[in-house]
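Quick one, tokens below:
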């Protein structure tokens, strides 16, 4: 598939997202920002989270079930969009990734991505964050890539949600990280 252009996904009314990686990568914050943005667009969001008792390094994930009405079941059972920021999280969704899902992985930290009929896109997420001067914004770089490639939400609404959920002294860096993530998937 090298060099092949892939058409971006058109906006969906209902979808499921799993954000996964290891503790300390800001996945719960990322889920809150996404939930805020989706709610701002008038969507109903059910958010769940799961993490191991270690604060750094253990498996961490957050699921979002998004739609126009309250979901029948608030947990992800057929994931349409998945983000994997650490190898520890690869096996965490083997049985619930839909066949036509978009799976975005960090090319540096996920050396053996999941396999299936879904599309896997390995991107230099951590490298991009390091290039911005702070590896802690890798989650927001990933948010930009997932938003751009998945066409999940208005970019302006995501930026507004970032501004409302990030401390003001870090807002500019996080907006830049989001834009760099969008650039990673710009065709």
């Amino acid at each position: 598939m090298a060099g092949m252009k892939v058409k971006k996904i058109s906006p969906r009314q209902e979808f499921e997202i799993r954000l996964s990686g290891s503790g300390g990568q800001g996945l719960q914050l990322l889920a809150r920002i996404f939930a805020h943005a989706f709610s701002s667009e008038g969507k109903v969001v059910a958010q769940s989270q799961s993490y191991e008792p270690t604060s750094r390094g253990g498996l961490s994930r957050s699921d979002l079930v998004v739609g126009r009405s309250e979901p029948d079941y608030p947990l992800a059972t057929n994931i349409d969009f998945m983000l994997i920021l650490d190898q520890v999280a690869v096996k965490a969704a083997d049985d619930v990734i839909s066949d036509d899902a978009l799976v975005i992985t960090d090319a540096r930290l996920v050396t053996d991505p999941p396999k299936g009929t879904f599309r896997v896109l390995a991107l230099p997420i951590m490298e991009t964050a390091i290039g911005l001067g702070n590896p802690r914004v890798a989650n927001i770089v990933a948010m930009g890539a997932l938003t751009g490639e998945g066409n999940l939400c208005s970019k302006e609404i995501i930026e507004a949600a970032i501004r409302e959920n990030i401390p003001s002294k870090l807002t500019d860096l996080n907006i830049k990280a989001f834009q760099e993530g969008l650039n990673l998937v710009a065709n």
